[in-house]
Automatic annotation (TrEMBL):
Protein name: 11-beta-hydroxysteroid dehydrogenase 1B
Stretches for region Disordered: 332-360
Feature: compositional bias, Basic and acidic residues: 344-360
Localization per record: Membrane
MF (Gene Ontology): oxidoreductase activity
Family that this chain belongs to: Belongs to the short-chain dehydrogenases/reductases (SDR) family.
Membrane topology: Single-pass type II membrane protein
Annotated Gene3D superfamilies: NAD(P)-binding Rossmann-like Domain
Pfam families listed in its UniProt record: adh_short
Recorded superkingdom: Eukaryota
Length: 360
């Protein structure tokens, strides 16, 4: 048995060396050629395609709806806030979508997820793209949480809120040779302080869709969006607080973002849709975050040290991220929607709960 394990260990190390020393150097120019010359010529025509978007009432989901609408796609918009969805639907029609269906639903509930998919297919007769985008976050140290059981909603929305719609949509996507698009986060690869439960939910989501890609092969394309800080209700400060309640805390948001740039959501979604149409496996934006997974793999201690240095404050003094933000005045570079007490779309849902879902 020991010899058998030794044989496989040696084989794995030899294989890793071949991949690093031979495959990667040879594959890079091939991938660059495909990316620069062939993929742009094979962009998917979205006219008349049916796209279901969860978390479509604001942020990334809302803007992706508009980008799809410009390409002539038919839309099924899903979120808990019906009034906000109807506003997005009206704008999407103005921007070119021939048909828009509004489906108020909480995708963290399996039955409501099933209903959203079934109503979409019943209305349009098919489904070509599923954009799993609903999400929420929290900004606090883990040992400051005062109601840990309330944080199950993080996994319910960020993980199961993607998995449930995917499970119900998959037969229809297979039939249409369609695509799965999931809004994950660069936080799935970076151990950022004060985001422990959010990071964990996004890491689970990322690995699930990477595994699903290996199961589906070419039957259904899978594109994973790993965005950094992008303007949305989350970067406006809306988050699950340490007591489990959802509220807006701009001060906590400022500490978390610090001097890091916050990208415009329109630009992110333009880049994202180009990647989706090309069939890219990953779309990371802003581009400054692209090296993060490599650093996490080769030098994880660097990310851990950086995170600790930025966010862990000494008693009686603000954290380094806050001091850097104040010293540089970098907040003036935040998008206008994040400054001057940003507004959040508020609405009472049918079950009289405050909508906790936002966008990543």
């Amino acid at each position: 048995m020991d010899l058998y394990l030794l044989f496989h260990s040696v084989l794995m190390h030899i294989s890793a060396a071949i991949i690093i020393l031979i495959y990667i150097p040879l594959s890079i120019p091939v991938k660059l050629f495909l990316w620069a010359f062939l993929k742009p010529l094979r962009k998917e025509d979205l006219k008349g395609k049916v796209v279901l978007i969860t978390g479509a009432s604001s942020g990334i989901g809302e803007e992706l709806a508009y980008q799809y609408a410009k390409q002539g796609a038919c839309l099924s918009l899903v979120a808990r806030r019906k009034q906000a969805l109807e506003g997005v639907a009206e704008t999407a029609r103005e921007r070119g979508s021939p048909d828009v269906l509004v489906v108020p639903a909480d995708v963290s509930d399996p039955e409501q997820s099933r209903r959203a998919v079934e109503e979409t297919v019943a209305h349009f007769g098919k489904l070509n793209h599923l954009v799993a985008n609903a999400g929420t976050w929290s900004i606090c140290f883990f040992d400051e949480v005062t109601n840990i059981t309330a944080f199950t909603k993080m996994m319910d929305v960020n993980f199961w809120g993607s998995v449930y719609p995917t499970y119900n949509a998959l037969p229809h996507l297979k039939a249409s040779k369609g695509k799965l698009i999931v809004s994950s986060s660069i936080a799935a690869s970076a151990p950022t302080s004060r985001l422990s439960l959010y990071n964990a939910s996004k890491a689970a989501q990322l690995r699930f869709y990477e595994t699903l890609r290996s199961e589906l092969g070419s039957e259904v394309g899978v594109t994973i969006l790993t965005a950094g800080f992008v303007e949305s209700e989350m970067t406006k400060g809306k988050a699950i607080q340490r007591d489990g309640q959802v509220a807006v805390d701009e001060e906590a948001r400022d500490v978390q973002i610090g001097v890091f740039p916050v990208a415009r959501v329109e630009r992110l979604c333009e880049v994202a849709l180009n990647g989706i149409r090309r069939g890219d496996w990953y779309v990371t934006w802003p581009s400054l975050y692209r090296p993060v997974p490599l650093i996490a793999c080769l030098a994880p201690e660097v990310l851990t040290w950086q995170s600790y240095a930025l966010y862990n404050a000494k008693k009686g003094s603000p954290p380094l991220s806050q001091r850097m933000l104040d010293a540089t005045g970098a907040k003036r570079f935040y998008p206008p929607s994040l400054r001057n007490h940003p507004g959040i779309k508020t609405e009472r849902t049918d079950d009289h709960k405050e909508d906790a879902a936002s966008n990543v």
